[in-house]
Structure formats: C-alpha cells, structure tokens
Amino acid sequence: MMTTQHHRWTLPLVAGLAVALAGCSAPRELVKPTPLEEIDNQQPPKVVWDASSGGDQENQLTAIAPVEDEGRVFVAGPDGDVLAYDLESGKRLWSAELDADLSVGGGAGEGLVVFGSEDGRVFALAADSGERRWDTSIRSSVDAAPSVGFGDVAVRGRDGTLHVLDAESGEVRWRQSKAPPALTLQGQGRVLMFPDALAAGFDDGTLAVFAREDGRELWSQAVALPTGRTDVDRMVDVDATPVFADGVFYAATYQGKLAALAAQGGRELWSRDFSNTNNIAAGGRALYLSDADGVIWAIDRRSGDALWRQSDLKHRGLTGPALINGYLIVGDREGYVHVLSTTSGALVGRADWGDPLVDPIQQVDGRGLAVSRDGELRVFTLD
Q1: Sheet order of strands, 206-211 included
Q2: Residue spans per domain, the chain
Q3: Where do the Pyrrolo-quinoline quinone repeat domain residues begin and end (predicted)?
Q4: Which residues contact 111 (CB under 8 A, 6 or more apart)?
Q5: Which residues pair with 84 in a beta bridge?
C-alpha cells in the first residue's frame, strides 16, 4: 500500500467503505519530506504578475488549475467565482458567478470557457465577456477539467461516464460509460480530442479511444491490470491525462505501469512498473513525470528506459512537472517551486512562494501559469 503521497479516494457505494477500511487496517506511517540542500540558484522562477484566482483551495480534494485560450487566462474559485485576465498584462477582463461548487478546473476553446460542478452541471461562458451561453446537467459530479474542441465539449463524470456535448447548444450528442471499481482515486485526466476521435483513461486501468462523431469505441487497452487481495491493492486508476506524440499514446496508472500504446489499435509498444497520478510532460525524446514517492524521472519515449532520475525532492508532495523554456518546473507541498535541467535532472533553480501550487502547472508561450492553494494566480517565467 502506498504511504507517501496524498490521494483522493472516492467510493461509488457506501458498502465499499468497509472494504477500504479492511484494506487499510495497519496505520499509515508518516514519511518526512527530504530536507532541501543548497543549490546554485541559476534559474529561479520569476513572477511576471499575480492576481486573485477567485478563492482559496485549502481543501485538498479541490484542484482548480488555470486554463488559457487566445491570450486570455481563466481561473475560478471553489464557490464558482470565475475570473478572466489578459495573459500579457494581467489586466482583469471580466468576472462571473456560477453559483456552483467547483472542484476541478475549466476548459477553453470554440470561443467558450467551460466549467463543471460537483452536482453535475456544466456551464459554458463566452470567453470574451463571461456571458453565460448555456448550462447542462450530466447527473454526476464533474471529475475532470472539460476539454473543448472541434465543435464539442467532452466532460468526465465521477460515475465513469464520458459525455460529449455540442459546443454551440450544450446538448448531449453521445454518452459512454465504464463502471468504476469499488474503490478509486477522486479525479480523472482530461479527454484528449482529435478531429475524428477522443481518448481517455479510466479508473479500471484502461485507455480507450472513441469515434468523435457517434461515440463508438474504436479500441480499449489495459495499461495495468489490478492485482492484490484488497480493493486498495487493486487500484490502478489512469488519473494523469495521457500524452499523445508521434502516433503514440503514453499513459500511467496509480500503483501499476507506465505504457506506450500505438494509436492504431492500442498495441503495447513498451511498459514499465510505475505509480503516477500527476501531470506528465513530454519534450524531445523524453517523458517527464514523478512517481508516488516524489522521485522525478525522465523516460525515453522510444524504449521506456530511464534517462535519469532525481530523488532530492523525495516525499515532498510534488506537482507533476511542467516543461517551460527547456526546463522542468515542479512545486512541493511546502510552497517551494523547483527548476530542473531536462538533460540531467539537476536542480538549477528554486523559489519560496509560501504556499503549495495546484496541479497541473500550465505552460503557454514560454510562461508558466499556476494557482496556489491560498487563492493566487501567478504567471511566471525563467530568464
């Protein structure tokens, strides 16, 4: 059983609680974060501007990250206050109130910014004004930031459903469902959208690709298979948003595997044991991701071999890495932001921002976008 990283568990049925407690009969041991050592601080992240993100996210079950589209940054607070800023200047463009409880970030595109609520409502606002365009119910808590593109909005439900809505009207075009296991991590990755298909990872450890037009399943492939006696041991959620590059999907599961799957048919090209729930970055020949212990890895995309590993931030509760201006950026639970070399994994920069960052950190045109737990949006860069 993993003991070193905070996870958000959700039980589809109340009866599952007894199973969870049975699987966790031994008390968890607290693992102290690795103390930080002095570094040659050559590349500290520098804040260009900051502003309110709409409300604090002290509840660790909340993960409302910023989203950007056409030079606008959109953020929201857990109570449904939505704010839009100009990316370059930080000027507030508009604000809106959704009167809804949010736990995940939004999606933007097609002239819209879209958020989903805890009670299953999906709201679409005009990206240029904040005016409400439509709202639709999917009857299940929205468990991942919506994806917007190609005239559609893709929304994930906590009950294992995937809804595709018409971006113009909000009407449900089709729906797919994969029943979740008895015990899962709360939260899911975004849907990847393509002109003719959509791809999503599921709580049963599978990655599936659907036809965008009618929702027909084109293929489904197990990234990892559940093993062990208890429901806790058998958790293999694909919680991190999969990565697609050069005709290959890369997906990772909690306490399972990291795998490369061919876009045509889902054939496994390689896999390795891994446990991951945070954002995955891809650049050049490598994937960059952190494991459940807080070790950061660079993995060769062609072979699955490790290029390097960085363990100096072990047990520090890291965000997933973001790739910005040729460097990797991660935040930790004590409010430090770390900069790593992509070639060696060496720590080359650090800043103390005083409060943890919400995962994922976004990258737009060489700038980082991040929201802190105390409710501050920061746009930053590296010299």
Answers
A1: 192-193, 197-201, 206-211, 217-222
A2: 9-381
A3: 79-310
A4: 126, 127, 128
A5: 74, 94
Protein fold of 9-381: Methylamine Dehydrogenase; Chain H (2.130.10)
The pLDDT tens digits for 287-331 are 999 999 999 999 999 999 999 999 999 999 999 999 999 999 999
Strand partners, 322: 329
Amino acid code (one letter) for 62: T
Question: What pLDDT, on the 0 to 100 scale, is given for residue 1?
Answer: 35
What is the CB neighbour count within 10 angstroms for residue 179?
11
List of residues 6+ apart from 194 with CB closer than 8 A: 150, 212
- Tell me the DSSP string of 50-73: EEE-SS---STT-B---EEETTEE
pLDDT tens sequence across 9-20: 443 333 333 333
Q: Is 225 helix (H, G, I), strand (E, B) or coil?
A: coil
What is residue 95's three-state secondary structure?
strand
**Residue 68, token pair as written in the block:** 């950007």
Could you give the CA distance from residue 226 to residue 73 in angstroms, rounded to a whole number? 39
For residue 220, what are its two tokens? 């489904």
| Alpha carbon distance 329, 349 (integer Å) | 9
